[in-house]
């Protein structure tokens, strides 16, 4: 087997359990199994560039190679082009895009820096797998340095329709850079279809039924590779008794109360304000539900230096305060809003102890929380997943209660349906959903992508 070299903006801390973020979780699960090299930014920012060789550290089966960035790189490449241009743009939020030409300069400069660092660790037989929107130009940079290994790319976030991409300056350069990879992976068929529209409308190329695109003399394979989780590991974690969660759960059981849970990075794509409003609407529409249910929302801090994130945090704090002010009683707090990071083991136990998993992003590449919630349920008395139709996961998880995250009444009605669903129906849905997350788990994701990258297999081949 060839050595796998994974590249992403950040490398996950493989020794920590409180890692928040889908890419870190999904990749760590997959890479631990196969072993290999993982290269990325070490999270440090320096005043000046000192062109260091990557720092090498071995953790179990994985060798990590990390580099620092300068303060300017961080401002222009990370906060700038990656998170103030591409992130909102790819999540269909043109209103939040803040484009500056220095951001693009920084983006190109850091991709060149990644290519330099990577060249120093690459061996001729390696296979390279690049992750996410921060590193779209990396294949082109590597090719310029004479790298002729196979290079794959996986986009963890959505790929929007051409009319949206076309709003960003140099969009043609961006998509042409993407097409320098040998394999391009997306989470859903919708994303894959959007690339097809772009190459046909703007580049005059065709994408074949099996995802092959011919550009000049080269052939690129595009495909849909839905990311998954390590199901058994999560089941095991959820089944382990967790004392603190158990005490809370017993108290709720005695009072006959149910819990709805939401867990997200505090990101404007996750639909958090309307989620809280939907919960308040539930209490309004069904007054008999008051004092019988509470919403626990864990919102993990993320990208706090970007203005849009400061705004969403303020909005959520005000909303949860207002809902509690309006509905709370001396012995019942309707919303528990936690702005912080919870250890993974506690998360799994909380999912298991919650009767509803409430996952309502306005747009999401996949959403691993939805899959983790399913994995954590017991078959004897499973909870119900209420899932946004705009999460990539909704393409697969069809037995969840699918909702429109822009429609507060629709979400409130479905919350009520979930809270009152008969046991038999809950079991049927749970069994079907469990089958689905097992079919497309972390291992399947890695292996199907590798089949395309190493052997040129396509997704739709007969
Ligand atoms: C991107 C795409 C795609 C969250 N809070 C805590 C915590 N988490 C963990 C969750 C889950 C992960 O972080 C979040 O993953 P998601 O998939 O839900 O979302 P993004 O971070 O936006 O991930 C997404 C993903 O990449 C993978 O391709 O699915 O669409 O946007 O695992 O459990 N973990 C811990 N404490 C927390 O407080 N330990």
Automatic annotation (TrEMBL):
* Keywords from the named record: Glycosyltransferase, Transferase
Catalysed reactions, as listed in the record: D-glucose 6-phosphate + UDP-alpha-D-glucose = alpha,alpha-trehalose 6-phosphate + UDP + H(+)
The pathway noted for it is:
Glycan biosynthesis; trehalose biosynthesis
Q: Give the InterPro entries listed for this entry.
A: Glyco_trans_20, Trehalose_OtsA
> This chain belongs to which protein, by name?
Trehalose-6-phosphate synthase
Top-rank EC class of the record's enzyme: transferase
Point out the coiled-coil segments of this chain: none
Q: Does the keyword Nucleotidyltransferase apply?
A: no
Organism equals: Chelativorans intermedius
Q: Which GO terms describe its molecular function?
A: alpha,alpha-trehalose-phosphate synthase (UDP-forming) activity
Pfam families, from UniProt?
Glyco_transf_20
Q: How does it assemble?
A: Homotetramer.
- Signal peptide: which range, if any? none
In the Enzyme Commission scheme, what number(s) does this protein have?
2.4.1.15
Briefly state the protein's biological role. Answer: Probably involved in the osmoprotection via the biosynthesis of trehalose. Catalyzes the transfer of glucose from UDP-alpha-D-glucose (UDP-Glc) to D-glucose 6-phosphate (Glc-6-P) to form trehalose-6-phosphate. Acts with retention of the anomeric configuration of the UDP-sugar donor.
